[in-house]
Amino acid sequence: MLTAIIALIIVVLVFLFAGIRIVPQGMTMVIERLGKYKRTLESGINIIIPFFDKPRVVSWDMPSQDSRNNRRKTTPWIDLREQVYDYPKQGVITKDNVTISIDALLYFQIYNAADACYEVANLTKAIEMLTQTTLRNVIGKLTLDECLTSRDDINKELCLILDEATDKWGVKVNRVEVKDIDVPESIRNQMEKQMSAERDQRAMVSIAEGEKKAKILEAEGFKTSEINKAEGDKQASILRAEGEAEAMKLKAEAEAAALEKIKEVFGSNEEYYEYLRAIRYIDTMKDIFAGKDTKTIFMPYETEKTLASLGAIGEILKEKP
Question: Which of residues 295 and 209 earns the better pLDDT score?
Fold first, then answer.
């Protein structure tokens, strides 16, 4: 009797221990009861019915850089953390018929373990093949230059297409990164020559622009110099004219004062007018003889008479108080 009780207790304990499942954080397990999906376990301690409830074992191919050596992973645990797959390089053809090799990274996360188990036979293999075909389709619509310059746009389009296609598998594609694009050697040499020619052209354009700006600055400087010079000449002419006008004014005032003085001496005497004529003759003769060339001058008879009268007029002026 005691033996039977001990045996029963052992059976109960084994049954209880067999019904306990401890799920680590970030992991899950799909439970089937009699071959049918029952529930998905959460992290922590979970109770199942032994012998009736069994975990669903998944068998997925884990990708590697050598696609021929993909390893098969068989486990009842499903990882719910974000995963990254580094797919091997594959050859794709661009819109302008250039064959290039592309290496891509895929970041995804399983959010529904049941769909990942039942909606697709081999989840990781399906994602790999879908990524390859989608990459070929996206690159096939672009030229080589667009592939090299629009990498961000390629990543966004790939992520959008893959996320939509894998949604029914319980997978969320967070992002896709095109890691490397290899161009054939011949195309690379042509691109380097083209880039070198473009750099030389930009350098020549920069030199031409610099020379153009230098000529413009030189012309503007010459223009400013000429304007300043003209303004200086203008100011000098104005000042010179004002000086001459002032001198003429002072000379005229002096002559007027002298004439008034003479008029006071002579009054209405005819000798006053003879004196004035004599002064004018003298000024005119100064201008005539001021030239450097030898001149023969014919003077009227009245001139001698006028000049002779200057001596007498001078004596008169001396006698006047």
Answer: 209
